[in-house]
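Q: How would the structure tokens look for this protein?
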Amino acid sequence: AGHGSGPAEDGAPPAPARVLFPPTFSVSEIKNKQRRHFMFLRWKQQQRKEKLAAKKKRRKEREALGDKAPPKAIPKTIENQRVYDETTVDPNDEEVAFDEATDEFAPYFNRQTVPKILITTSDRPRGRTVRFCEQLSTVIPNSHVYYRRGLALKRIIPQCIARDFTDLMVINEDRKIPNGLVLSHLPDGPTAHFRMSSVRLRKEIKRKGKEPTEHVPEVILNNFTTRLGHSIGRMFASLFPHDPQFIGRQVATFHNQRDYIFFRFHRYIFKSEKKVGIQELGPRFTLKLRSLQKGTFDSKFGEYEWIHKRREMDTNRRKFHL
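A: Here is the predicted structure in token form.
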């Protein structure tokens, strides 16, 4: 590599040495590991400078052209290159409207039932799962935590129905870490199984706000566009009372991106008439749908509406199901 730049003019500081690589040069050809790493970093730095210079040049050209500037190019992402799904819901579709008016969640959306949720765990939970359940119960109003000790889900469900619970939420764990969620809508289902990951409790979140209040939060559901996604979105919505108390300024968000459902719980603060700040309250976690089952939980004889089969379904990175 040569260090190239002409002689500096009188009084001017010397120009920084520019790395000039031969046209067929490959950093991986350098045998010395430290030298190879050093040259790679210099090469990356040069790439960044060139990219920044090209960006500045484009911006100046746009400013010079003014109104005649061509529209900005939209970068290609996996989301906007998504493979078309024939089950994508049209908001004005009469068939969808009829299905939603008659499905298992209709009494909730018609304000005929008030959500009452039982949060339970896998058998004999450890400390982290226990704390997660307690924090989840402060997010979902009218939810009650019950720690299982050897009682089968098949026996818990009839007791829940008898006591007017509308949903059963089971947090499973592996090696003391929450790793699964079973959500069963009572009394007639459906039941969804999710893989759970990236769980962060309140104390693990940086710049978190004060503890949540008892106000009913608003619920935001993003990107649940297919029929399956619609069902899952309605399932999450029916966990929270229908009329939020805006005075509490609390928001529960279920954001679907590439079939991963990210849960966040925030409080927003009005700094002025135009500026709004948000504080994350926690907890946070990520879900991935494994299956959707008709009826309540039944691992042996349950009828499945949808099961995630990796080898058959994940052939294309741009194909999503929710």
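The mean pLDDT is 86.

The CA atoms of residues 196 and 287 lie 5 Å apart.

Upvote if useful.
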